[in-house]
Write a structure and sequence with these properties.
The protein is mainly α and about 120 residues long. The protein has a single domain (about 5-115), classed as Orthogonal Bundle (Cytochrome Bc1 Complex, Chain F), CATH 1.10.1090. It is built from five helices and no strands. The chain has helices at about 5-10, 15-35, 50-60, 60-80, 100-115. The radius of gyration is 18 Å and the shape is flat. The two termini are about 25 Å apart. About 10% of the residues are buried.
Length: about 120
């Protein structure tokens, strides 16, 4: 994975002490917001990105249907300005069903580009 200037900055000893509490807060905040809408983190990925679109094509039909239902429910809750009932919030928002497949699809797409060049 490529590291940028920000990653190097965060690794500095004084900055790391300030960054870690913020990172933990951001993780809790994100989890709370996703659970309020009944979404998984992967539901928020841009489906128009070529890699994500390719992964979505390869998802099992049941997983794709569940994703669409979660997004529709979140939209409905947002329009109604309500949140998902507390009893339905006991799930792992970090469960990767798209991001776990992205590396394989990126490798496949790179192989296809390499093959087309030859």
């Amino acid at each position: 994975m490529q590291t940028g200037k920000f990653d190097k900055f965060v690794q500095l000893p004084g900055v790391r002490n300030l960054w870690n509490p913020f990172r933990a807060w951001h993780r809790r905040f994100t989890e709370k917001q996703l659970k309020a809408m009944g979404l998984l983190l992967d539901d928020c990925l841009n489906e128009h990105e070529p890699v994500v679109a390719e992964v979505l094509k390869k998802l099992p039909k049941e997983e794709l249907i569940m994703r669409e239902k979660r997004i529709k429910r979140a939209f409905d809750l947002s329009i109604k300005k309500t949140e998902l009932h507390e009893d339905l919030r006991d799930y792992d928002v970090w469960r990767p069903y798209i991001t776990s497949r992205i590396n394989a699809v990126q490798k496949q797409m790179a192989d296809e580009r390499e093959y087309q060049r030859d």
